[in-house]
Structure to design on (513 residues):
């Protein structure tokens, strides 16, 4: 895969970073392509003028960012504190709130109406035409915006005595977002509610054609309003903002070309190119994703500490951010999906507006399916059950009661059926026993009747027998059998007669009746 123009420039700038003096000049001269050589020189110049910004912006940012890096050739002026006690327009300066490369923000008192304001002026010694044009442009942008989540501008003007441009803004008595969260124990849902308010404020700016370009925790103050008090975020510092309107943009912001505008850890891939025409409102959506990541985890999605600016830009352009769940497993699921969608490198894959991001957060907070996640049937059912806990709980309780009722009814029905079967079996057994008893009695009676018939028959037979006749017949039959037996044996008839006579003599005293 061939090396891109930007990758080549970053690599060559990294090599040149270790050189100095003539060695660096010779190295740059050896780069044949004019455009590439100019880009490498630009990266080196940025590194020299802004070295240390990445480390500063990832650890200890000041609460208010006050504008662009100093214009080339401008010299540092006196400290902003030199104006404390002086009057600018109708404002009496009381103290310094914050200072930056080109501007100072003061706490001041306005005479009419009597109120405390934040007064912003160009730092003494930095009133170049470019800075003044940018300063006036910021005041114009703020004049477009009217939202509870954005610091409101009261007045813009020129001090007659000094000729200095100034504008007065709403004074926010609060803490920057990081400090506010550090001083309070807020759960994930509370942090998300607060962040959704920030998104809605950014969406208002976008709807008015304003891209902030430097959204970060130090540019968001949180104050408490209402009774009972509730957190109200306020977005500050539109010093590097731009318009989405093409005609206005081309007329006012040509000096942005080639510069890295914003704070590196919160820059999108397209913002890191230095081409202002590559930016749109979705670049702010990316910055919001980084802020949300930091709100939830207290750290950045990339480790950019101790890196040169062009190296940090390369990391943002090429590397994948650390997933939230790898740091805090409880954020796995919808919350992680929302953050990672906002951090997509390709603009078309991000939320297309800050309002869309806020809406998806609201969906999560109300247990509705989020747009960033494919909605499976089970996912929608789970979300519905969370969203309607009372209804689902009531249905579940009714279902349990119904099931228990069915189980109870079924059990009693089974018991009744069991008893019915037992009764039928007992009745059938009794019937069988009774039938068996009747059969036994009938059989006994039949046998008795048969015995009676036999006995009667035998009695009749016996009654008809003549004992004397039967006795004589028995004696005669006996003697005949003896004679037949002797004849069969071939005995002498006389001997047979003698034996018969002997037998008759022997049985003469026997009664055959």
């Amino acid at each position: 895969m061939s090396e891109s123009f930007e990758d080549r420039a970053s690599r060559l700038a990294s090599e040149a970073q270790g050189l100095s003096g003539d060695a660096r000049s010779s190295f740059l001269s050896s780069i044949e392509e004019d455009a590439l050589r100019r880009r490498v020189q630009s990266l080196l110049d940025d590194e020299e003028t802004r070295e240390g910004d990445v480390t500063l912006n990832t650890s200890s940012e000041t609460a208010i960012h006050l504008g662009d890096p100093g214009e080339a050739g401008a010299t540092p002026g006196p400290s902003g504190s030199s104006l404390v006690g002086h009057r600018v327009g109708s404002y009496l300066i009381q103290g310094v709130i914050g200072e930056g490369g080109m501007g100072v923000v003061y706490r001041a008192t306005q005479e009419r109406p009597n109120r405390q304001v934040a007064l912003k002026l160009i730092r003494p010694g930095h009133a170049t035409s470019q800075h003044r044009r940018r300063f006036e442009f910021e005041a114009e942008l703020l004049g477009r915006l009217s939202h509870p989540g954005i610091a409101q501008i009261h007045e813009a003007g020129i001090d007659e005595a000094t000729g200095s441009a100034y504008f007065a803004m709403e004074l926010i008595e609060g803490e920057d977002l990081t400090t506010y969260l550090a001083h309070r124990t807020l759960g994930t849902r509370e942090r998300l509610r607060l962040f959704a308010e920030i998104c809605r404020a950014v969406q208002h700016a976008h709807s008015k054609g304003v891209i902030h370009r430097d959204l970060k925790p130090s540019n968001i103050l949180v104050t408490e309003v209402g009774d009972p008090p509730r957190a109200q975020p306020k977005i500050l510092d539109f010093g590097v903002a731009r318009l989405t309107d093409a005609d206005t943009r081309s007329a006012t912001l040509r000096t942005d070309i080639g510069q890295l505008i914003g704070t590196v850890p919160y820059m999108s891939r397209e913002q890191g190119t230095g081409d202002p025409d590559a930016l749109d409102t979705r670049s702010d959506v990316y910055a919001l994703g980084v802020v949300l990541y930091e709100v939830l985890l207290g750290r950045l999605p990339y480790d950019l500490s101790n890196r040169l600016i062009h190296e940090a830009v390369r990391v943002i352009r090429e590397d994948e951010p650390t997933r939230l769940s790898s740091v805090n497993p409880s954020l796995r699921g919808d919350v992680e999906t929302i953050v990672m969608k906002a951090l997509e490198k390709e603009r078309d894959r991000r939320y297309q507006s800050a309002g869309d991001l806020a809406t998806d957060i609201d969906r999560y907070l109300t247990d509705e399916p989020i747009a960033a996640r494919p909605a499976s049937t089970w996912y929608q059912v789970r979300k519905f059950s969370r969203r309607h806990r009372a209804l689902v709980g009531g249905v579940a309780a009714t279902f349990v009661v119904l099931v228990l009722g069915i189980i109870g009814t079924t059990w009693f029905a089974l018991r009744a059926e069991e008893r019915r079967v037992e009764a039928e079996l007992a009745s059938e057994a009794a019937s069988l026993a009774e039938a068996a008893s009747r059969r036994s009695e009938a059989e006994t009676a039949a046998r008795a009747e048969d015995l009676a018939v036999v006995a009667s028959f035998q009695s009749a037979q016996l009654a008809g027998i003549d004992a004397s006749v039967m006795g004589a017949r028995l004696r005669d039959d006996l003697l005949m059998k003896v004679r037949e037996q002797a004849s069969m044996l071939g005995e002498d008839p006389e001997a047979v007669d003698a034996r018969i006579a002997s037998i008759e003599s022997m049985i003469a005293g026997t009664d055959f009746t």
Q: What stands out?
A: The chain is about 50% helix and 10% strand. Confidence is low (pLDDT under 50) at residues 49-78, 249-255. The longest strand covers residues 91-99.
